[in-house]
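During data preparation, a discrete fold description was generated, and the record follows.
___
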Amino acid sequence: MKIRIEDDFDLQKIAESGQCFRWNPNDKGGYSIVAGGRALNISNSGTEGEFEADCSEKDYDEYWKHYFDLETDYKGLREKVSKEEDSFLYVAAEYGKGIRILNQDPWETLISFIISQRKSIPAIKSSIERLSALAGSRIDGTDKYAFPTVDQLSKVSVQELNDCGMGYRTEYLYQTAQNAAAGALRLEEFNKLDDQQLLEALMELKGVGIKVASCTLLFGFHRLNAFPIDVWIDRVLKNEYNGHFPFEKYDPYNGVMQQYLFFYYRNMEKNSKKVGK
């Protein structure tokens, strides 16, 4: 089907924004996506703002539209950034135009970001694919596998996790899955918490520090004010904001601004623009 999207929407920028690990380039210049127990191929049609997707209108309306967060006006959010008051973020937002915060499953996001610690993107993706093939359900009509449910992951042994390349993260994943299966961890209950309470609850989990918790908050629970700090954002704060980002100015969308900053700073060597100009 053809999809018309008037707002900011750039497949490549979303894929490279660090929030998702099951987006892979397809042979049509777009992406093959696995999410929510579904598989989708989507690519630009050649007409600006128009995309081709191999899903039904019903599936698009009931799942993918929400997954891509098309209910949120990202163009409007970018326009909140003043060139005069914050020239660096203005340039970053223009460079990152098209990034959206996906509505991803909290369980998959939590496990994926536990896996992501001290791993390269290709290694993260490989581990997640191996784990999905091992324990997830095959998606009808495809050769792809859904991410394992709590019950499915809880049946994976320590050795099998090691065989998927989890390394020291094996202990964290195994314990998290066992706790969730036993009912000691109920992520659905976390939705009732405010952002700070949710952050603290996530950090009580074994192997979950502030970065993994913040990423899960933003990318899994879609708390758009969450502001994960990794090596790139840490450099941004130190080098461009003297350690003090104006969070109050962009509340409750600091997480969107974080994505613009992260994407721009990580790709600055490719960017011919001068910072602040």
Remarks:
- The longest strand covers residues 38-44.
- The domain at 106-220 is CATH 1.10.340.30 (Endonuclease III; domain 1).
- The two ends are 41 Å apart (CA to CA).
